[in-house]
Amino acid sequence: MDFRIGSRGSALARWQAEWVKANLAAAGHKAEITCFRTTGDREPSAALTGSGVKGLFIKEIEEALLAGRVDLAVHSMKDLPTALPDGLTVGAVPEREDPRDVLVTKGNVRLDALPLGARVGTSSLRRQSQLRALRSDLSIAPLRGNVDTRLRKLDESACDGVVLAAAGLKRLGFEGRISQYFAVEELCPAVGQGALAIEIRRDDSRVAGAIKSFDHTATRSAVGAERAALRALGGGCDLPFAAYGSGEQHRMRLLGVVAALDGTRLIRAEASGPADDPESLGARLAQDLEKQGARTLLASAWLGRPT
User: Of 71, 79, 160, 288, which one is the catalytic site residue?
Assistant: First the structure.
């Protein structure tokens, strides 16, 4: 066997790992997938409310990678902390899938058609805060589980609608369930949403060479800028910070949003600049957000999060 791929065991994680396996096969390499049950899988309440521990969904996979039990790890980019363990690096960032959030409802209706006080499920403080900014009457229902679990809970009448990432639904063949796509300007995505990270050992030139062609320069730059902004603000994926980078050719536009959990205050900022300097672009966006009080808002959100 040429390569051993580490992955979580959820349906979406398996799809992502199988995609990498298929692309390795197309290049003439054999690969096998090893699935891991991570801390986030074993302790869903910690993943739901935010425990302050970073890398809940990747820790065990990274340990296996460092120990040489797997040769590469496939993650959802949004699960990857901005600081990686010594000895590891992101070897490739494939082209991004649709980064938007979507609404799935029983009657296939849009957000503005849901009844007053409608119950909408989401496990994300970022989504919760921006949804309440759009409609303050909504009742937000904390929702655990993978994509199929959340759809089942909707079908079992636990809530009127759920908000999920478009990428996951599309990859798993559930695109037909989508009732509404949110524009990034109205519900800004999570950092790295829709993108994959292929993590490898820093000194493993064999694996680096095999996956080099999987890397998509524009996606790597956009995600790099988003992650740089998050790093500068000192936040994690469990706080109500959102960012999305986009652009054409050599220029990039970066949008950032920080919101109060109740939706009563929402800070926006934009930055633009050369696509080949994502770190500087992300840092400038973070500085603009900080000038508007982003750190205070994030601290308040952390203290007010569900426990």
Answer: 79
